[in-house]
Design goal:
The complex is a heterodimer. By secondary structure, chain A is an all-alpha fold. Chain A contains eight helices and no strands. Chain A is 81% helix and 0% strand. The radius of gyration of chain B is 19 Å and the shape is globular. Classes of the chains: A mainly alpha, B alpha/beta.
Chain lengths: 216, 273
């Protein structure tokens, strides 16, 4: 294979990895918040259901979950889905998995806000929604930022799991070329890609933490 | 006690808050036992009594932070809570509750300022968010309150940059910004270093002098005696005696009050002011 060809293939894989990362982050953060509300709900059934969902998502391998979401519709319900579903299945798997982790982070963040903050907001007449949006959420975001950074870094590396349902992200592309060319170089390139990606993630999250540390 | 401030008001005074037969337990522990209390417009009520006597719980139930177990609660003649025939407490519906909530404010012992908001934002956010005031209107009202609190130069500071006394002054300004009909103070000086209590008491004295309706739960007995129109002594979840500060502090009928006042005197000597 020519170098230009190799680079194109790696570049395509890289884009897929970045796409998985971006979509997962964009969707699972708000979904995680919703799940956290369910987890803390006063409704016993909702709370129990959400707790079960979180424990399954955290207690089984993401790789397995991806396979279930991809093969499940056909093997369980005999529904065949178009070829584009492969990528959708990846996103669904990542979304549900990461929302579960983010939910627990959000919950711990909410519970770490002193009760007095909720009470002060109630006395001043804020509705529950207003109090959450204006008083609780901003403080919660700051407190959970380090934990969210951890998850983001894991997510960057987890994108390589999409290969189990043959989505050719960075890792699958690199290992295919490495096998064909009998060379370690593509794998090195993949390693460098993940490292640089995570370096940028850490850098921007550090910046965000600094931005939010204007108060104590 | 100088009562001249009520001379000239012929009209019957409005009850700002009425508590009737309030009961509250935490588990098996009865914290409030059949307590009734009225607060008239323009009146300063001081609630004193030993720790654990239920003073703060009374205030928290009145401010709707804790639900009461039975009894009635009224603001400006409107029911916030009633006990129905089954003995269950029923609170007013959301819309009415919102209106009722706007009639009182509360200053907390440990301020509970919003740490992520600047001083001025702490004061003007509720008027803007809750009362839908314009930014300008809220801001100028907020500036006025800040200057009254002697904090004009701290507008852009954050709570963590202020002393405890300054933080408590901001939280008083925050409560005043909503113009409540009645203001509750839950031991407003208890979290402060002794040398900082004076600045808060001075503000409370000012507020009392303008006939703001206030209920003050405090350990500052002497101060309470100076500013209050009515004084309530609580012990074990009930009002032991109620009357003018002079009656309670100088001529208490109940032995419990004498014991309490004596123990305070002894403690004060021990600390050696």
């Amino acid at each position: 294979m020519e170098w230009t060809m190799i680079l194109t293939k790696l570049g395509e894989g890289m884009l897929v990895s970045i796409e998985i990362f971006a979509w997962t982050l964009l969707l699972s953060l708000p979904l995680g918040l919703l799940v956290a509300f369910g987890r803390m709900s006063g409704n016993v059934f909702l709370r129990g259901f959400v707790k079960f969902y979180i424990s399954v998502m955290r207690g089984t391998p993401l790789m397995l979950q991806l396979m279930v979401f991809y093969y499940g519709p056909f093997l369980l319900f005999h529904v065949s889905l178009p070829g584009g579903y492969r990528f959708i299945a990846v996103l669904i798997g990542f979304l549900f998995n990461y929302a579960a982790y983010f939910a627990e982070i959000d919950r711990s963040g909410m519970e770490s806000i002193p009760k007095g903050q909720y009470e002060a907001a109630a006395i001043l007449g804020y509705s529950k929604a207003q109090a959450f949006r204006k008083i609780i959420l901003p403080q919660m975001v700051r407190r959970t930022l380090p934990a969210v950074t951890n998850e983001m870094i894991t997510l960057v590396k987890d994108t390589s799991l999409a290969q189990v349902i043959s989505v050719s992200e960075m890792f699958l592309a690199a290992s295919a070329i490495a096998a064909k060319e009998a060379s370690m170089l593509p794998l090195f390139a993949a390693g460098i890609f993940y490292y640089v990606f995570n370096y940028l993630v850490a850098l921007s999250m550090e910046w965000a933490e600094r931005k939010l540390s204007y108060y104590r | 006690m100088d009562r001249t401030k009520h001379v000239g008001r012929v009209k019957e005074k409005m009850m700002v808050m009425e508590i009737r037969h309030m009961q509250k337990s935490f588990g098996n522990r009865k914290v409030i036992r059949d307590l009734s209390l009225n607060v008239e417009e323009g009146q300063v009520t001081a609630v004193i009594g030993p720790s654990g006597s239920g003073k703060s719980t009374l205030l928290r139930c009145a401010a709707l932070l804790d639900p009461m177990d039975s009894g009635e609660l009224l603001y400006l003649g409107q029911h916030a809570a009633v006990t129905n025939a089954d003995g269950k407490v029923v609170y007013a519906h959301r819309k009415k509750m919102k209106e009722i909530r706007s009639s009182f404010g509360l200053v907390f012992q440990n301020f509970n300022l919003f740490p992520h908001y600047s001083v001025i934002r702490n004061i003007i956010d509720a008027p803007m968010t809750v009362q839908k005031k314009s930014r300008e209107e809220a801001y100028w009202a907020g500036r006025k309150l800040l200057s009254r609190m002697g904090l004009s130069d701290r507008e852009d500071s954050y709570p963590y940059q202020l002393s405890g006394g300054q933080q408590q002054r901001v939280s008083i300004a925050r409560a005043l910004a909503l113009n409540p009909k009645i203001l509750f103070f839950d031991e407003p000086t208890s979290a402060l270093d002794p040398e900082l209590t004076g600045e808060i008491l001075e503000i409370l004295r000012d507020l009392a002098a303008e006939h703001r309706t206030m209920v003050l739960v405090t350990h500052e007995i002497e101060f309470a005696g100076n500013v209050a129109d009515q004084m309530v002594f609580m012990d074990d979840g009930a009002i032991v005696e109620q009357g003018s500060p002079n009656e309670i502090l100088n001529h208490p009928k109940q032995e419990r009050i004498k014991t309490f006042l004596n123990s305070l005197k002894r403690r004060r000597k021990g600390i050696c002011y």
